[in-house]
Amino acid sequence: MTRKIKVMSVFGTRPEAIKMAPLVLELKRRPEFESLLCVTAQHREMLDSVLDIFKISADYDLNIMQPRQTLSTITSKVLLGLEDVFEKAKPDIVLVHGDTSTTFSAALAAYYAKIKVGHVEAGLRTYDKYSPFPEEMNRRLVGSIADLHFCPTENNRNNLLRENIKNGVYITGNTVIDAMKYTVSDKVDLSLIKDVDFEREKVVVVTCHRRENYGKPMEQIFSALKRLAETNEDIQIVYPVHLSPVVHETAQRILGGISRIKLIPPLDAEQMHTLMSRCYMVMTDSGGIQEEAPALGKPVLVMRRETERPEAVEAGTVRLVGVDEKAIFDSAQELLHDLDSYERMAKAVNPYGDGSACCRIADAIAWDFGLKDAPPRDFEPEKK
Ligand code: UD1
Ligand code: UDP
Question: Which residues participate in catalysis according to the annotation?
Answer without folding.
Answer: 99, 121, 135, 209, 211, 242
